[in-house]
Design the sequence.
């Protein structure tokens, strides 16, 4: 009896997370389709989103979010690392990369640390910081949010990319409207 109840309860948080990520990804795509301003470099037919969490970081910055100094992209969106990644390999591909877009490039004036790039499985480049591939998160809807910190999804744990090069503690609470992880 307990085994069957555990079996019924176990998939629910994962299903909820995947559903939220799917909705967030769809929202980002729809927002990109609805904004046909001149900020898109891809022109018509581009698969690049115009969302603020787009994969190219531009100039990286730091910000204090939830009491922790983290890396952000040029728009102020938190950058993340994925625990299963190695210094030479991203383990986040396909649907994972849709929810956690890889940071393709970026410059980091004023940020001290070891930046490099790795080659992803699709042949594209991905920026790394202290040997950790960097990502944004479609669940962050405004600069200064860190809704992805501590999320366990796609086979591993996600952390804010600390400006010091380490991973944020799982217990640190994300900031943003409403607090909590939003799930």
Sequence:
């Amino acid at each position: 009896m307990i085994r069957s109840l555990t079996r019924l309860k176990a998939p629910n948080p994962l299903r909820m997370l995947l559903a939220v990520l799917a909705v967030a990804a769809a929202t980002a795509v729809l927002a990109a389709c609805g904004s046909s301003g001149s900020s898109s470099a891809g022109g018509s037919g581009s698969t690049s989103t115009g969302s603020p969490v787009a994969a190219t970081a531009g100039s990286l910055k730091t910000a204090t979010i939830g009491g922790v100094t983290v890396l952000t992209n040029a728009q102020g969106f938190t950058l993340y690392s994925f625990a299963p990644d190695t210094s030479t390999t991203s383990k986040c591909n396909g649907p994972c990369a849709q929810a956690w877009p890889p940071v393709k490039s970026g410059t980091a004036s004023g940020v001290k640390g070891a930046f490099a790039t790795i080659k992803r499985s699709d042949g594209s480049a991905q920026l790394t910081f202290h040997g950790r591939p960097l990502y944004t998160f479609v669940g962050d809807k405004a600069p200064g949010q860190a809704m992805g910190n501590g999320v366990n999804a796609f086979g591993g744990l996600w952390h804010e990319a600390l400006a010091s090069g380490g991973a944020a503690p799982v217990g640190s609470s994300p900031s943003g409207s409403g607090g909590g992880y939003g799930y």
